[in-house]
Write a structure and sequence with these properties.
Layout: E1 13-14, E2 26-29, H1 32-42, E3 47-50, H2 65-73, E4 76-79, H3 86-92, E5 100-102, H4 121-138, H5 143-167, E6 175-180, H6 184-189, E7 193-198, H7 208-220, E8 225-228, H8 235-244, E9 247-250, H9 263-278
Parallel strand pairs: 2-3, 2-4, 4-5, 6-7, 6-8, 8-9
Antiparallel strand pairs: 1-3
């Protein structure tokens, strides 16, 4: 197994499992939700490094020389296919299949272009189980630990799903207006209707016609809150909110590590924002 200390790389955010023993598997995870899964399953038995630094849009990832070396030496690269991070996908295409894991493979998805599958906790649980299976392949000595940790984390995600379903069951409205179309899987899971200002690409500028259409929807449907994201400028959301007499609030797509807590804490913060905005009982 590679003994590379990938957590020290320039341009990479150190993972939380830095106390792993010498010779432990070196895992590079493409961005935060996959880091969360790898650390939750691997615990202290793996070195996990986040390829995307905090506060950086993972869509915009370009590989530095240090990152290329880390990827080349990693025992396992965990990433999300489908064009989410083209530079990374291009690189891993040359790796042996045993050293990479596309978490989308084997998952039953809706088939649209939205890559933000981790915002559905049930899909996230499936990702966790795939990570657990692959870690047992590369480090069979700790199979029991990986299987136990994976099952425990999957149960926690199932509980999170149940919490979302219960708290979003009875709401005054089910329309969520978002700055870009990152919340399709969350909306589908909990019977919400996403109306996005921009499309899948958070950097794409909406047309004047789209801005007018969303503003009209907000007024006609008495939408009280327009959601923006922490890594994207809130300017467009604030402009529409001011024009339509609405407020703005943050809804995280969890593409980067939260300022405090972990995936579950950030998802619960999202739930609290949705409950307030949608008038849920």
């Amino acid at each position: 197994m590679a003994a590379v200390a990938v957590a020290s790389l320039s341009g990479c955010a150190a993972g939380g499992s830095t106390n792993a023993p010498r010779g432990a598997p070196a895992v590079v995870a493409a961005f935060y939700p996959l880091v969360f899964a790898a650390e939750g399953v691997g615990g202290t038995f793996v070195h996990v490094d986040n390829l995307t630094a905090p506060g950086v849009e993972p869509h915009d990832l370009e590989l530095s020389a240090d990152q290329v070396r880390a990827l080349s030496n990693a025992d396992l690269v965990i990433y999300l296919g489908g064009g989410f991070q083209p530079a990374l996908e291009d690189f891993v295409s040359g790796l042996d299949a045993t050293r990479k894991l596309d978490v989308l493979e084997g998952l039953e998805l809706t088939g649209d272009d939205d890559p933000h599958v981790w915002l559905d906790p049930t899909i996230m649980a499936g990702i966790v189980q795939r990570v657990a299976a692959r870690l047992t392949d590369i480090d069979p000595h700790h199979t029991t630990t990986y299987e136990r940790n994976g099952s425990q984390l999957a149960r926690e995600l199932a509980g999170l799903d149940e919490l979302f379903a219960a708290r979003l069951a009875r709401c005054a409205t089910r329309d969520i207006v978002t700055s870009h179309a990152a919340f399709g899987y969350m909306a589908e899971r909990y019977d919400l209707e996403q109306i996005s200002i921009s499309g899948i690409d958070p950097e794409a500028e909406p047309s004047p016609g789209r801005l007018a259409e969303v503003a009209r929807f907000v007024r006609d449907h008495d939408v009280e809150t327009i959601f923006f994201e922490e890594l994207v400028s809130p300017d467009v959301a604030e402009t529409i909110a001011e024009e339509a007499g609405a407020e703005t609030a943050m809804l995280s797509p969890l593409e980067s590590a939260p300022a405090s807590g972990d995936y579950s804490d950030a998802m619960k913060a999202n739930l609290a924002a949705l409950i307030e905005a949608l008038g849920c009982e």
